[in-house]
Each structure stands twice: as C-alpha cells, then as structure tokens.
Design goal:
With 287 residues, the protein is α/β, with parallel strands linked by helices. It has one domain. Helices cover 36% and strands 13% of the residues. It contains eight helices and eight strands, in the order H-E-E-H-H-E-E-E-E-E-H-H-H-H-H-E.
Length: 287
C-alpha cells in the first residue's frame, strides 16, 4: 500500500517531537523517592540561612556563619557571648595541644599550622526534638544526604566544602539552674577539631588517608584531652538537658565512634569521602 510523502513526513516529525519531549522529561524528572537529587553543595547554608554578620572566633580561626536554635531549649542553644565563649575556649585548648598529641602518636605533619580553616554552622542535632527538621543536622535526605547519608550525628566536618556542621547546644543548665558549658558539646567539637587539624596540617598528605584511622584518631584525641565518656544518644542528651540524670561526664574508656553509631539507613552508602562525623551513641532503650 502506498502512502503520501507529506503524511509520512508529518508522522516522522511527530515521533521526533515526542521523543525529544520524553528525553527532556527524563533529564529533569525526580527519582522514585519523590525528591530532586541532593548534591553536596546543598548542605551549605543558603543566603537567607546565614547570619547577617558572621562571628569570628579568634582561637578557632573560624567564622560562625549560621546558627539555628532549638525552640524547646532556647537558652542553651541560642547565639550569645556565653555560647561563643565555649566554642572559642574549646578551640584554644585543642589547638594548643594537638601538636603534642601528634607527637605522642608518632604522626608526621606537612605544616606546623593549619592552612585554610572551615566556616561553622550550628544546627539542631537531637532527633527527638528538631534534629531531623528542615535544615537540621540530621535533615535527611533533603540537605545532607550527599555528604552524610545516614543518621544520626552530633557533628560533621566536610573537607571538600571546607565547612563544619555542629550541634547547637554549647550550654547546659547545671545543678544550680545556671547555664554552664556543656561537656557533651565540648566532646563533639574536640572530636571534629581533630578531623580538621589532621587534614589541614597535612597529616594525611604524608601518612595516607584512611577513614577509619581518621575516626580512631579523633576519638583518641578526645581521650587525650581528658574526656573519657562516650558519645550520647538523643534520648540521653534530652535527659541531660532536662536534668533527669546528672550531666557530668562518666568515667571510663572512650567508646569508638563506629561502635556507638545507631540508626544507620539500611544499605546506605558511606558518607562522602571528605566528610568526618561525630556519631550519636547508642541508648540502652534503642538496643
């Protein structure tokens, strides 16, 4: 059967246009999970999320560029002089002793001082409060999936972004009811400082990078700094903040980060190769 060349051409053009439309749709379509793919740069604070004036921490050599308080614990989690002093003093102590720590471990370094240091975001971390809300530390998968595809963390240093994401509770109420430095926050920041300094002083440029070795080194530095208590779970953290149990650190060996991690997403890939974490501990109630 013969057919008209005009009709054939029209049919060909129609099929071509349909194919082009389907190709375009495939390029912009979201995954089956229903959300757009998350890139590592999505973890960085957007312009509206940044502080209008970054806060310089002299002993850290870093700027706080973002701070999100937790509404249920505003005094303990809000930006202010006392909270900033906890960060700066923790940095001062850690930076002063890190070279001695490396020497004690027999580790070389490429530089005597760190090169470019990261910016800091302080975000809600407790998953029983707002730690999984939009733009919180455990906001998965909308913001942090590409750099830390798992839960749950108190701190996250992403070397490739030159950014430190940190829990937002430098303060805690003591027995008198007055606000005091939160030793659990200090532990987290000290752990992350080890990740930062080992990278920025060139330890791994010489020794060769291994994720588990980096995590182990960070935990060893925590112990070197006198903190011999494990990372807490969100349930334990809430109990500390609400005064249900004493907040003072317990004695004993520091738990390995990989041994205390809970709530990993089944089959989730490892965090970004340039991300280092302070993982939340296991609660007896969650075992």
């Amino acid at each position: 059967m013969s057919h008209s060349p005009t009709i054939g051409l029209s049919s060909y053009l129609a099929r071509l246009l349909a194919f082009a439309a389907l190709t375009t749709l495939a390029l912009v379509a979201t995954p089956s999970s229903g959300h757009a793919p998350v890139a590592r740069f999505d973890a960085l604070p957007r312009l509206a999320e940044r502080l209008s004036q970054p806060v310089w921490l002299a002993h850290c050599g870093m700027r706080v560029v973002e701070w999100r308080p937790t509404s249920a614990m505003l005094p303990e989690t809000s930006l202010g002089p006392s909270a900033l002093a906890v960060l700066d003093e923790t940095c001062r102590n850690a930076f002063e002793r890190y070279t001695d720590f490396l020497r004690a471990k027999g580790l070389p370094r490429l530089r005597t001082r760190p090169d470019v240091l990261p910016s800091i975001s302080l975000l809600p971390g407790n998953i029983l409060l707002d730690g999984k809300s939009l733009r919180a530390l455990n906001d998965l998968p909308s913001r942090f999936e590409a750099v830390a595809p798992g839960c749950c963390y108190w701190g996250l240093y992403v070397d490739s972004l030159n950014h430190l994401f940190l829990r937002n509770d430098p303060l805690i109420r003591g027995e008198s009811g007055a606000l005091e430095p939160n030793p659990r926050f200090v532990r987290t920041l000290t752990h992350e400082i080890s990740h930062i300094l080992s990278s920025r002083m060139g330890v791994w440029d010489i020794a060769g990078y291994d994720r588990q070795r980096d995590e182990d080194l960070a935990e060893q530095f925590v112990e070197f700094m006198g903190m011999r208590f494990p990372a807490e779970s969100s349930a334990e953290d809430l109990a500390f903040h609400r005064g249900r149990v004493p907040y003072a650190p317990a004695t004993g060996a520091v738990a390995r980060a990989d041994a205390t991690a809970v709530g990993k997403l089944p089959g989730a890939p490892a965090p970004s190769a340039s991300a280092n974490t302070s993982e939340q501990g296991s609660s007896p109630r969650s075992r």
